[in-house]
Amino acid sequence: MHYNFDEPVIRKNTNSFKWDKFDKSVLPMWIADMDFQSPPEVQTALQQLVNHGVFGYTHEPAELIEVVIDRLEKLHNWKVKKEWIVLLPGLVPGIHASTQLLGGEFNSVMTSTPVYYPFMQAADSGPRQLQAVQFLKKGNKWAMDFDEMKAKATLDTKMYLLCNPHNPNGRVFSRTELEELASFCLERDLLIMSDEIHCDLILDESKSHISIASISPEIADKTITLLAPSKTFNIAGLGCSMAVIPNLELRNAFRKATYGILPHPTAFAYEAALAAYKYGEEWRKELIAYLKQNHDFLLEEVNKIKGLEMLPLDATYLAWIKYEGNFEGGIEKYLASHGLGVSPGEQFAGDGFFRLNFGTQKANVEQAVEILKKAFA
Question: What span, in angstroms and rounded, lies between the C-alpha atoms of 331 and 305?
Fold first, then answer.
């Protein structure tokens, strides 16, 4: 390896959400950012910008769009045009802007739960009606319940919110699954908002990411795809994301929903995104190998602990762990009292689960396992 992901990085007292939430005695493994330094090329690009010393209004580098287009074709076999891309200061605002396109409060959005909690917040902020359909457990993986989706869909259902790769259950949906979802949406004239922020964090080498918009021109015409380098290259605090919207009318409506509300990404965001996408591929590959080792260790050890169950992940660095028992104050408070900070499943509409971030040094993952053993002894 060229990069030392084992090297600890001190993040306490740096205004880190992750490290400042809990008491200093608690190992934080909750929010979805990693404890690794970003690629050296990203750091160099930002330092050069600082050295220049002028931080005025900045438009995106033309090269950034070209790099994104090239990357999507090479890594994900999806050919996009530059005019389809709308740059954003964050992915969550893109989720909210997508649901704002639906208009009246009686319109509904559908999603499969548990799911990344901003999906539910975006539905509530409309206000919209949220039609939540629980995932089915099939063997050692989670699957969309198409029968229940068909039963719940009404004439008021206007959009399906997709998370692929999925947060928090870690699925990378197959072409067959995506084609079935595409048919479901086309038959009911539903728009699709597809959050694909984890698409470059595939752990299972037998799996590949497929953007649902690449399935067919018809489904591309109904889809808003949200992407970002933030999770992969650990630059979430800089704020650079993008929407890919092939349909001109839909794209104009999306721009209108964000106009005057969402700012452009900053100069720092542009430079970091460009450097990450242009120069960070070797770093990304080594990161994936390191995360896979953490995943495999955690999977084996967690499933040895009575009262816990973890299914293998296709992607992400976010373990979705089922637990048995009732704990006063909830699982987050209980595990924090033992020295481990996690995200409670209730946050994702997943009672009886917690999410644990293993995008950290192996020593921290080992420490987390020891805490879990004691907490569930």
Answer: 16
- Which residues does residue 161 pair with via DSSP β-bridges, in sequence order? 111, 193
State yes or no: pLDDT of 124 exceeds 90. Answer: no
The full set of domain ranges for the chain reads: 17-40+281-375, 62-279
Distance CA 92, CA 241 (A): 9
pTM of whole model > 0.70?
A: yes
What is the fold of 62-279?
Aspartate Aminotransferase; domain 2 (3.40.640)
- Is the pLDDT confidence value at 105 over 80? no
- Cα separation, 372 vs 369, in Å, equals 5
What's the gap between Cα 33 and its chain centre?
A: 10
- Using alpha carbons, select from 145, 169, 119 the residue that is nearest to residue 319: 169
Contact 376, 323 (CB under 8 A): yes
Average pLDDT, the chain: 97
Is CATH 3.90.1150.10 the right assignment for the domain spanning 17-40+281-375?
Answer: yes
What token pair was written down for 356? 């644990």
